[in-house]
């Protein structure tokens, strides 16, 4: 795929995943066990009172089945009574001492053994700080009034922890459950795809080092442009409508759910040979310097079926105009550069569940329809505002410096964007506005009051950050800069509140980065609870490279249980064209970083494919009814497909 963003994202994720895989080779046996079989612990280390009351004299009865590998004690089961504060290692030592006195011989080093919940893929690892009653399996058995049944076995028998098997012995060429995207073929004389890329002709630094832009020439900051933002809609082709149909294009700038400027329509044009031409400039009535960094330009194709076209404004507000397709594109690319020059956008068909008052699907993907042969193709041109150099959005250092200068400017003796310490009555009014029912929107005057008291919000009500963000005027680059400066030292908020900031309403890159920072302290148990929603949130990320993708990848490669769910949540949506590239690259990176997990995943994928082929076979016309189904399952074809499942 000849897309620099895809290439850069794939290389970065592959490099990070392989670095984690190399670090895992240096892990101790306990660290590797924590990765392969993460302890299923309760967040509260103290045993609840209602469970402690079920124990006799604070003693826990445990049944242990011993597998030591010797012929004398094959599958021997004994009951042991231990204190509730005991650790797994203490239980292992107690078992070995009792068996040694019974058999009259030493049974080996206690560190060579491990405890496992019988009938489950859960191990009671001795981390040194977790008591045996902190494991959820033990608490579940106590609550049910049952005796926990554990299996004590050698660590060398645990898959993945065998002394003879190490990660160095596993080939990196293990077949991947998801075929990685094919890299672009280098042309003759060009640098191969695996070698460092040649620098671009335009002297623009990498997105990982945007702070160098101040010292590099050849770029123009969009904050220095005084013109209004505008584009030119040139033409559209491959429209699947009857000839002589009247069509027009609607366009709008969005930041989250907020409309930036005005929504504009082209004139109606008559469709001829599935094509129409406008070459019409649309001015959105917003200064180019005020366009937010994460703004997206949304287009919608509308057609009139029957009826006469009105005159003047009536032709633009025709009630019988029906939206047919849509497409979105980011105003700035992943390197902070303003889109410039002609662009070819392939539209997505409009589904029945997409209904908006302005006929623009602003929360849809910013990826063009990959089905280029049948999709309508919209030709638009981004203006360069008379600049010969590429136009870029200023880096974060420049934004913070700009905000600091504006904070120091004074008007009538008071800073423009700050207020003196608020009184108790003012704080009470602020609290009432911040904790107002979410279904009741704040009035403009209330939003202005909340914004003016933003320092008090940070000091007294930091959890109400989402409410403050809804009061930001995102089409003012001064206020956006002040908000980013305020966010840079905002105290961390609860994880439940941080999850709200990942909604599509909060498009700001700084806001989403802050939300991910607040989630980094989330426990593995809590992360598993929200993993499905977090993977779905990846669809709202405008760029392939984002903080949420990196966070989820790091946690998935640090915990195989999380990685297992992460893998299947991604793979289950590989059929969705809008996210197939993004999810495919994440899957490839995970497979490269989780080599020990590959064998299990490969067998599961093969089993799934066999079941899918059987499903197709059963649905065939030659098999109908119960007799046909029985004949199908007994056929040689079905047996061949189900072998080794």
UniProtKB/TrEMBL annotation:
The entry lists its GO molecular-function terms as: 1-phosphatidylinositol-3-kinase activity; 1-phosphatidylinositol-4-phosphate 3-kinase activity; ATP binding
> Mind telling me which GO cellular component terms the entry cites?
cytoplasm; phosphatidylinositol 3-kinase complex; plasma membrane
Where does the record place the PI3K-RBD domain? 57-154
The GO annotation for biological process reads: cell migration; phosphatidylinositol 3-kinase/protein kinase B signal transduction; phosphatidylinositol-mediated signaling
Segment Disordered: which positions?
Answer: 165-212
Q: Cytoplasm as a keyword?
A: no
**Statement: the UniProt record of this protein carries the keyword ATP-binding:** yes
Q: Which residues form a coiled coil?
A: 6-33
Q: Where is the PIK helical domain?
A: 416-593
InterPro entries (alphabetical)? ARM-type_fold, C2_domain_sf, PI3/4_kinase, PI3K-type_C2_dom, PI3K_accessory_dom, PI3K_accessory_sf, PI3K_Ras-bd_dom, Ubiquitin-like_domsf
Residue ranges of the C2 PI3K-type domain? 225-383
What UniProt keywords apply to this chain's record, in alphabetical order?
Answer: ATP-binding, Coiled coil, Nucleotide-binding
Q: Which domain of life is it from?
A: Eukaryota
Family of the protein in this entry: Belongs to the PI3/PI4-kinase family.
Name of this protein = Phosphatidylinositol 4,5-bisphosphate 3-kinase catalytic subunit beta isoform-like
- Which organism is this protein's natural source? Lingula anatina (Brachiopod)
